[in-house]
Input
Amino acid sequence: MKTRVIFLGPPGAGKGTYASRIMERLNIPQISTGDLLREAIRNRTEIGIKAEEYVSQGKLVPDDIVIEILKQRLAKDDCKNGFILDGFPRTIEQAKALDNITHIDLVINLVVPDEIIVKRLSSRIICKRCGAVYNLITLPPKKEGICDKCGGPLYQREDDKPEVIMQRLDVYKKQTAPLVEYYRNRGILVDIVCDKVDTPPEEVVDRIIKIMR
Ligand SMILES: [Zn+2]
Output
């Protein structure tokens, strides 16, 4: 089975949702370098303190720090049978550094048309009071504009407005295209096309697990 997996996909492609369901079904951890960094900073580990110097200045944490944190994480027992990397690598330099610390079996490239991403993300609304997240298409509130949980008002984040989403997608494509080619040339990348806005997550997860097997 191919269980050392990288997930690639634009913002709003559902990487996190699919990864966490696969994690439950196959019992392999989902690893996000963003989460690892936040955890290291919170726990004030040696490397976390280094990372915080950059984060507190609003700078990107350098690759060698991220790779070191990832290396420590991948050495833990629960990664013995595999892992799903979500949000890393983003560049070829990072991919090469990753090759030096582990072997990757498979890269799942989620291909989602722009209009679907825009539809999905721009239908997301958030409670101003408690932060609960709703989606007008897949998870609408019971009463329009009002939070089910606390009765607070719902609003759309600036990041989720269509023109901002298009900009984020452009950045993603420019940044990730070389990485997709890098893994495709190595013959370990598989495209998963999700071209419907209402495809149930379970269906996509089944497709991914089949490829892993
Ligand atoms: Zn609320």
Q: What stands out?
A: The CA atoms of residues 3 and 140 lie 35 Å apart. The chain has one domain: 4-28+81-212. Helices lie at 15-26, 33-42, 46-55, 63-74, 92-101, 114-122, 162-185, 201-212.
